[in-house]
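This part of the workshop introduces the protein records we will be handling. To make this concrete, we reproduce a full record directly below.
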Amino acid sequence: GGTPSSGKVLTADSNGEGYWASGGVAADSNKNVVSFGATLDLTTSNSYPTNNYFLGVQAGNSFTSNGINGTTGDSNIAIGYRTMYQMNGGSQSNIAIGREAMRNGTSNQLRTSVAIGVNAAYNLDRGDTVAIGNMAGYKITTGIGGTAVGAQALGNDSSAVTGAYNTCVGYKTG
């Protein structure tokens, strides 16, 4: 029941009856979209961050509109629990999908990277990296231009991956 209006989402109760409820998605004047559990403070006025999309509990947690921790990133997409959780640099044009994907990036050099999978690129701190698979690229820290495809590719060893342009394809490679 009810009438749709701005800020409302269509949902259903336990009996399957549809109704319009508050919540769901919020956007700010800098074109940041926050939804479903992301815990950002985008209430202060500043020009950063801009054009970001955060979906999931604590996704993009360190991004704030007043630049807390130097977070001035733009054009990032974080989908999943704690994706891009510790991002605190000028990160730009990154995509993280999956529980805690790209969780601990703390450098302003984290740009144009893709992490898809649970804990993919978990510790990534530099850019131009692709990590696809469960824990793929987990151990990459300051290495740039890496490619990790497969469960635990560049993510299984106990030491950090710091070299540039590493490529590993397959289960537990690298």
